[in-house]
Amino acid sequence: MSTKDMMPNFDLFQPSDMGNAFDLLEQYGADAWPLAGGQDSLDWFKDRVKRPVAVIDLAGIPGMNGINETANGIEIGALTTLTEIAESPLIRDSYGVLAEAASRVASPQIRNIGTLGGNICQDVRCWYYRSGIDCYRAGGNTCYADTPEGLNREHCLFEADRCVAVTPSDTAPALVALDATMVIQNTDGMREVAAEDFFIGPDVDIERVTVLEPGDILTSIRIPSTWAGANYYFEKVADRETWDFALVNVAAVLRVSGDTIEGLRVVCGGVQCTPRRLNGVEDIVRGSARDEETIELAAGSAARGATTLNYNGFKIPLMENLVKRAIRDS
Amino acid sequence: MADNPTYKLIGKNFTPPDIEAKVTGASTYSEDFRAEGMAYVKMLLSPMPKCRVRNIDASEALALEGVYGIMTADDVPVFPNPGEQILTNEPNFVGEPILAIAAVDESTAANALELVNVEYEELPFVLDPLESLYPGGPDAYSGGNLVSSLRIEEEDELGDIGVVSHKWTARDFAAVDEGQLPMGQATMDWQYGDLDAAFNDAALVLDETFVTACNSHHSMEPRSAFSYWQNGKCYVHGSTQSQMFVVPGLANLIGITPDELVYISEFCGGGFGSKGGAYAVMALPAHFSRLISRPCMLRITRAEEYYLGSARASFQGRAKLAFNDQGKMTGADIYIVQQGGAKNPFGDFGAAGTMVSLVYTPESMRFRAIPIGTNTTPCGPQRGPGQNQMSAALEPLLDKAANALGIDQLEIRRINASNHETLTGGENRQKVSSSYMLDAIDMAAERFDWSNKFARNGERNGSKVIGVGIGQGYHSAGIAGFDGLMRILPDGKLHIHTGVGNLGTYSYASTSRVAAEVLDMDWDNCVIERGDTSKHLPWTIGQFGSLTTYTMSRANYAAAMDMKQKLQEIAAMDLGGNAEDYDLANETVFNINDPTQSITYAQAAQRALELGGKYSGEDPNGTNPLTQASVAGLAGSGLIGVARDTTPLNEHISAMVATFVMIELDTETGNYEILEFVSSGDCGTVNHPLGLVGQLRGGACMGIGMARSERQIYDPQNGLPGSVGLYQAKPPSYLDVPAFMDVSAVDQPDPTNPMGMKGIGEPPVGAAVGAVLAAVSNALGGYYFNRNPVTSDMILNAASGREQSNSPLQILTQ
Q1: Which residue of A310, B252, B346, B622 has the lowest C-beta tally within 10 Å?
Q2: For residues B459-487, b (16+ Cβ closer than 10 Å) or e, as one string?
Q3: Are A244 and B730 inside 8 Å of each other by CB?
Q4: Which pLDDT score, from 0 to 100, does residue B3 have?
């Protein structure tokens, strides 16, 4: 068995500007590992499962920190800590769903170090994969979770494709709900990708969870003002009240006028490899009165199409209940 | 808890002398030590649940710069199967150490391990005892699945291999419905009373199959060890709950005599049963140090602690319970199949039977049990081993019975509560020395305001529902026969030598205060000598089993009485009269008839040096050889008080806790919050109030973890453990336990302890897990999971009418 909790040596680079970082990423290619808060990365290193040759610490690059108002919303540096986001008056006032989601990530200590960029880019938490086993996602040709005996309580209801792991992030559903865009830079320049398109499932690439490719750096997250000040709801259900991953979480934003819900975006985490936007729920609710009938119809459709594994059937009522609460209590 | 007017020190709070170091971070644990030229040891762990090492090629590893050497199973002693091995070529759980490399630093050692080529022969493994018991099922140990010392008399001879292969018949399995525990031949089988009559005449019979979880100890300090050899002695810095109790076992693991070992364990960052005695891996640095002639440090990582640090055993159980119409349990027919783990299993199963006999006092009872090996981490003792699994299993069922009989849930516990005449079950039934459990139940019920709180059970507020529950926990709480040792120096200070380890309960200090109380010493003039065998410590019970407070207060009392006798004799020698004419007060020995005739303790100590013999420690008769050696080491330094506790003890010492909780359960999320928590305990006379509070609350936190989140999971496909990090094993966080826990004690003396004390470390766990699970079942209107932990997915399945994911007998699962 590979040694646990004993990090192998690697070259650590701490570039002081973006150009330097890109040079290093280019130089080392697939052997490079960009490091943000390190809360996911260091676990991989200590268990000797991921073994980069060069670790490029992004912390010293100017401009990747902080929360700024823009003409059309806000821009959050990818290295902004989760604590800063949870405590930001600007985010709490206008984009409460994100502040709430950030405040529920892991533990206070981890939130003090962990970054927004790191939280959304973190790898899946399937316990088989994390143990260093040779599953599909690790380049092998088996999934140990999706078998008659596999222990798959935390695994997916939707869009399995050889791998049944789920997105573990609390902030990712909130960013999809807010229609955020991810600002990605590389030596060719900058591009923006909608949050919904940023996360990719195993059908696209089984060894990645985002569109980021070697050489790319997620530099910031832009949130348009479309949903600023909207009603919102975030809830995370986990085994423990702190330092745990969501069994299922829900992030929703709603525009309500009088009795009518004019628009909404509802997203669940913990149910598929990417944050799952509940288009069906949104279609049912949009333009409807916030009444019992609408809420029940929305809840009933929340988990339509789910394919359960042996141990995760509970996620269906949990999704339904969380969606019900999101529509009802936001 | 009120001040105890009988004593000056007993029942009073004090500041234990190690507190400051713990608070400031100055305390040193085994991995904090360093020595010139030291090496670091890393281990290669088994990747498979059962295999045989065919070949080891370490040539590349040994060629790596900075590597000092390798040790394999061939270089260390072999211990009888299925005992723990230091290193092995036949690992039978994932994470068992196969070989180790020492190097200039840990990184080099870890890199070297990656260069070792090991050829394995994979062998069939088993995680479920029932699968192993099925005809033809795999055996977890080499050569069997049952420790031969536990085998049934009629079993065929199996030589001296230490294990037998025990199977039930296919008919045993076919005789029960699916989901019911089959009950083949057991290794423990005892009975009392007329069980048939109880079931024939019962107003209610329950027949319930249940399982309980395997869960880890989560000791914050992993079991690191540091060792070196000097002047013919082996020095080991280790992490253990106990101090002196570790010495014989550790010496045996190293292959030396106890007098050749210096064992240092001044602080221990938690053990919870898993570090009660010596364990195999702590001897590895000593062996390595001897091989490479360097001090050796073995730092155990968090993952390694989970792999090999042992865990509480799962039970697969069946409880057939008979009640009369008053709610009295007239019959209990209990069967326990215990997950044995990969090594010699701890006797949780036996304790389970005693627990049922004492907590529920059934008028008749049959108890059968069998521990069967599994290729999982060794199943060692964890705080209330066996007793607390039974609290988890049976407390909700008691409510099921009460509900069926139309009896109040508090009343059914009162009716069945033990009293001073209650007998244990088992081959040799013993009367308890005292039991104030009914008082504890009533005290907690009153503080909780049971009637009004229970009236709220089932109260709904949207998706939230109130649940109220009661739990009871029990553990044996003391034995006799250990040694006390102390001395008064010519400066008048009392040095209390204690072999009690520093497991976090402060019992090393609180039991030492018994000596100060007897000798009427100012506590500021007392010095506790501990934590290092070179300080000459007496033979002491290990710090486990809730034993220390009772056992070592007796031992220290005996030694203090020896000291008192010697003080009286010296005074009589110098001042005239008989020893009985003298008494002690304010650190002087005075003539009862003429208090002006007195000598100080300091003077008496000076006289002891002149007198020699028994007074200054030249004649330590009647104590354990380890104590005698310690006395010899102290001889001539002062007036010595030393004795073995020989006061006869024929009763069973029992301590219990009753816990009441109110929860608010959200049926839409499966989560719940514990709104109120009240516990009262029967622990005899309260010795150290703050220590007691720590035990009651800390134990409750572990019980809450057992109830709501803790479990070890193993993949049935490859035997891989899935709970090998704190975030995976899920001990409760501070947000998962109540912000305030009301705790109290009956504070009634036990007649067999000179100060009336009993231990109480373990029952709070069982009382808490029982109460929380009972409250969850009550909140769900009487839905019984017959399993712990009860996690949010299970509550959601129950609340939404879905089937549970696990089959009734499934263990080590999610």
Answers
A1: B622
A2: eeeeebbbbbbbbbbbbbbbbbebbbbbb
A3: yes
A4: 75
Angle at B318 between CA B721 and CA B205, to 5 degrees: 150
Which residues in B lie closer than 8 A to residue A107 (C-beta atoms)?
733
What is the domain range of residue A24? 1-60
pLDDT the model gives residue B512: 98
With left for phi above 0 and alpha for psi between -120 and 50, is residue B69 left, alpha or beta?
left
Residues of chain A in contact with residue B303, where contact means CB-CB under 8 angstroms, are 4-5, 47
Mean model confidence pLDDT for chain B: 96
Residue A94 has pLDDT above 50, yes or no: yes
pLDDT tier, B160 (very low <50, low <70, confident <90, very high otherwise): very low
> Which residues does chain B have within 8 Å of residue A321's beta carbon, measured at their own beta carbons?
463, 668-669, 796
The number of domains in chain A is 2
Min Cα distance A58 → chain B (Å) is: 25
User: Which residue in B590, B643, B635 sits closest to B613, CA to CA?
Assistant: B635
- In this prediction, residue B588 carries a pLDDT of 98
Say which of A151, A237, A324 has its CB closest to residue B792: A237
Residue B157 confidence (pLDDT) above 70:
no
CATH code, A304: 3.30.465.10
Q: Tens digit of pLDDT for each residue in A172-225?
A: 999 999 999 999 999 999 999 999 999 999 999 999 999 999 999 999 999 999
Whether residues A7 and A106 fall in one domain: no
Same-domain check for residues A171 and A44? no
Chain B nearest-CA residue for A144:
B717
Residue linked to tokens 């199409």: A305
CA distances from B694 to A260, B272, B699 (A): 54, 14, 8
**Is residue A183 in some structural domain?**
yes
A150: in domain: no
Is A108 found in the same domain as A38?
no
Picking from A42, A60, A78, the residue at the C-terminal end of a domain is A60
Tell me: do A220 and A314 sit in the same domain.
yes
Interface test with A, best of B53, B734, B793 (most A CBs within 10 A): B793
Question: Which DSSP state fits A58?
Answer: G
pLDDT at res. B155: 46
- ipTM for this model: 0.97
Whether B154 shows a pLDDT value over 60: the answer reads: no
Together in a domain, A114 and A260? yes
A190, A255: one domain? yes
Give me the residue from A128, A241, A312 closest to B736, CB to CB. A241
Report yes or no on A153 lying in a domain: no
Q: Measured between CA atoms, how close is B726 to chain A, in angstroms? A: 9
Domain co-membership, A197 together with A82: yes
**Sheet arrangement for strand B39-45:** B67-72, B97-103, B39-45, B296-298, B225-230, B233-237, B261-264
Residue type for B18, please? D
Do residue A1 and residue B792 have CB atoms under 8 angstroms apart? no
Instruction: Tell whether A84 and A9 lie within a shared domain.
Output: no
What mean pLDDT do residues A275-299 have? 97
Structural domain contains residue A191 = yes
- Alpha-carbon distance of B351 to B696, in angstroms, equals 20
Q: What is the mean pLDDT of residues B324-351?
A: 97
Nearest CB partner across the interface for A8, out of B111, B302, B304: B111
Which domains occur in chain B, in start order? 30-123+218-308 (3.90.1170.50), 315-478+651-799 (3.30.365.10), 480-644 (3.30.365.10)
pTM across the whole model: 0.97
pLDDT, residue B618, reads 85
Q: List Cβ neighbours of B603 (8 Å cut-off, separation of 6 or more).
A: none
Shortest distance between the Cα of B315 and any Cα of chain A, in A, equals 20
Checking phi first, is residue B719 left (phi over 0); if not, alpha (psi -120 to 50) or beta? left
| CB-CB under 8 Å, A313 with B805 | yes
Cβ-nearest to B301 among A6, A133, A310: A6
